[in-house]
Amino acid sequence: MSDDHDDSPIAARVRELEAILEEKGLLDAAELDRALEAFAHKATPANGFRVVARAWVDDDFKAALLENANEALPSVGLSMGGGLQVQRLYVVENTPQVHNVIVCTLCSCYPIALLGPSPTWYKSPAYRSKVVSHPREVLEQFGFTLPAETEIRVWDANAETRYMVLPRRPAGTEQLSEDELAAKVTRNGLIGTAPV
Amino acid sequence: MPRINDVGGQDGFGPVIEEPDEPIFRADWEAHVFAMNRALIGRGVYNLDEFRDAVERTMSHESSYYENWFRGIRTLLEEKGHV
Fold first, then answer.
1. Chain A touched by B18 (CB under 8 Å)
2. How many CB atoms lie within 10 A of CB A96?
3. Cα separation of the two ends of chain B
4. Domain range annotation of chain B
């Protein structure tokens, strides 16, 4: 991070502010590098994939996850902490009757600890405005068509409360190991804009 | 009165565009803004709620996500007399 050669005006303004803050002792460049490095390695969607795979193979874990996700996560070595403050997590389960989608209409609240940083479309006004009023249309923009009779529930996250979708286990995966199951899950599946 | 960030249910923002394999940060300065914010909150220079409020009241739909973050951070630091 300290090796930054971006010439754009915004990059220059960011560097300028950083320099002021360092001079005042409010920031330390080495500390920023370390924090970012740790964050990039720890917060990835692979965490969410593991949670889903475990829920698919372990009914007790799944029940605990749906009941109180914050308490269930430590048994797979994860938590919602490690960020700026601990957030309440709700895991919402897809069923043949109900499909869940998550959004943050106000900004970009997202379970970063389990999914990594959110994609740009999740933070876009286009997604945030429309998924609450026309969820089926938005899912179709992702190439995902749900049967007309499936109920769609949209969960609006906020600063204190985050959501993650538990997708349905794909058919024909009975013989797969937990790791192989985790590899079937996608980030969009955990947001609800893909089936798995 | 709702702030401009409160877009739920509004029309006119166009289609959702998904960019396959997008990087976590589009430019190095975005990573700097992200890390700076965590460090400043971690040190108690301001808290998460103050940050959210500052971004909401200074944001523009014409600016990118991290441009809005930067404007919010800068505004808070000015208001608190740090810059």
1. yes
2. 9
3. 30
4. 28-79
